[in-house]
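Quick note —
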Amino acid sequence: MPAFKHTMLTTTPAEMDIISAAIGDDTNQARSELDYGKAVVKGTAHNFVLAPADAEIEGFIDSVRGDTVNEGYSFGGIQRRKRIIAEVGANQGATAMAVNDFVVADEQVAFGTKGYAKVKTGNPTKFLWQVLAIEGTGVAGDKVLLERQ
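Predicted structure written out below.
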């Protein structure tokens, strides 16, 4: 096995395709740095909400303003490209996640609770996040480095 390992990249927000957005599924619930890195999908109110299990991941929370704005919704940035660290979710199943697998969302950690985005092997068709590296054997709780294809 080569000594080289894939790592996070230092890059510009433009390359990471970070967009400004309303964050959360309710109003007047300020989000915080505890929510950085969580997997999200578009909600129905021009907002981004936690990605439900089996959903294709549209992005990850990159930043959050510390108060509520935008008619009561928190405001922040959503990363839609490049690399992100996530965690293999509890519902991965009997087959371990492997390098080059594509992933979808697993059950997420609630807003306001620190934790990595939870993912599991899946068959996304539009938002293709692929495993570049795994710390461990690809079972629940292992960290994975993802990159959007």
